[in-house]
Write a structure and sequence with these properties.
With 219 residues, the chain is an alpha/beta fold. Helices cover 52% and strands 16% of the residues. Strands 3-2-1-4-5-6 form a six-stranded parallel β-sheet, with helices on both faces.
């Protein structure tokens, strides 16, 4: 079985906070609802699109507007995903290098699977061997079901799980994976450590070095 590197998407490989903020506010603006700052969205994301929309709405507005805002957001954001998104600098080269070193590279995201696949096709291409988002009937992270499904599909074993949030650190621990937190993402390093990170990477270069060490341990 080949070693697999499992990556979170948003905040780990993809610099998406500004895009999510813009699309979320467009979805709200269509219905004349209050908008939010990028800092507020930073606290809303991480648990999938449905919970994102619920957090965007005041409790009094959810019964009347949740389904409309959700539909607006999905349509707007999927359009953006199809056009191409913004990987963090150095990420694409890192993924290619890791593949050449013998890893399979995969994404497991709480973003809906349709959006995750669009980002894979438009932005990452063959630098990823698989990208899987939230699937119908499969619990979102930090439940281990999604990551285990990715490993089953690739017929591989996880060499490391990499993410930028407390949800990711909990996911790695729930799966029993070696878990690396990246500090350039959405959440502070203290939160990553408190939620079980085995190591932290402060740059893409540092992450690549940590992952090459994992490959040596797998051999």
């Amino acid at each position: 079985m080949k070693p697999v590197l499992l990556f979170d998407l948003d905040g780990t490989l993809l610099d998406s906070l500004a895009d999510i903020t813009r699309c979320g506010n467009e979805a709200l603006a269509l219905l004349g609802l209050p908008l939010h700052t990028q800092k507020e969205y930073q606290g809303y994301i991480g648990n999938g699109a449905r919970l994102l929309v619920q957090r965007m709405l005041a409790p009094k507005d959810r019964p009347a507007y949740e389904e409309q805002v959700y539909a607006n957001y999905m349509r707007i954001y999927e359009g953006l995903c199809a056009q191409g998104c913004n990987p963090f600098p150095g990420v694409l080269d890192m993924l290619r290098t890791l593949q050449k070193a013998g890893f399979l590279t995969a994404v497991i995201s709480n973003k809906p699977d349709s959006q995750t696949r669009l980002v894979w096709e438009s932005t990452f291409g063959n630098t990823l061997d698989l990208a899987q988002g939230q699937l119908e009937g499969v619990p979102t992270k930090p439940d281990p079901a999604g990551p285990r499904e990715v490993l089953r599909r690739l017929d591989g074993v996880c060499a490391a799980y990499i993410g930028d949030s407390e949800v990711d650190m909990q996911t790695g621990k729930n799966c029993g994976f070696y878990t690396i937190g990246v500090t350039w993402g959405m959440k502070p390093r203290e939160m990553l450590l408190e939620n079980g990170a085995d190591a932290l990477a402060d740059s893409v270069e540092e992450l690549a070095a940590l992952l090459r060490l994992r490959l040596l341990k797998e051999e």
